[in-house]
Write a structure and sequence with these properties.
152 residues, mainly alpha, 0% strand
Length: 152
């Protein structure tokens, strides 16, 4: 096998074209691919950092919510206790006022009953006196009638 001169020229042209294409096309494409890979890796790292921050923020929000719920429940319980105390105080005050009014009403009723008894006693005495006077008048009339019948 003989190596022909054209083969060497073709090989030289091929190597020249390969070197030129490598410098003109392959290097820029490889550089673009490397830059793209670096940007992608950078974005992935940034996304991972953002995800980690989001997770941390989520945990902080959950802790804040849990704390707020606990505080809210504590405040709610305190308000319920205060409300119950106020309700009991209002009931006690109403009972005291009612008892006082009832006591006053009973005293007034006793006074009115005593006054009625007094008036009834006075009227009873008046009526008794009137009955006695009527009976005395009837007796006197009977006496007078007897005397008149004896004189007649």
């Amino acid at each position: 096998m003989e190596i022909d001169g054209t083969l060497l020229i073709q090989l030289a042209i091929f190597l020249l074209v390969l070197t030129g294409l490598s410098q003109l096309l392959l290097s820029p494409v490889l550089r673009l691919l490397q830059e793209r890979e670096q940007v992608t890796e950078g974005m992935q790292q940034e996304a991972q950092q953002m995800f980690a921050q989001a997770q941390l923020l989520r945990q902080q929000v959950q802790q804040t919510l849990t704390t707020a719920r606990r505080k809210g429940l504590h405040v709610q319980r305190q308000l319920v206790v205060q409300g119950e105390q106020l309700r009991q105080e209002a009931i006690d005050k109403s009972r005291q006022q009612s008892a006082h009014k009832l006591h006053e009403a009973r005293q007034q009723q006793r006074q009115e009953v005593a006054q009625c008894h007094k008036v009834l006693q006075q009227r009873t005495q008046q009526m008794s006196q009137q009955v006695v006077n009527c009976l005395t008048d009837v007796k006197n009339m009977k006496k007078q009638n007897k005397q008149e019948q004896q004189h007649a």
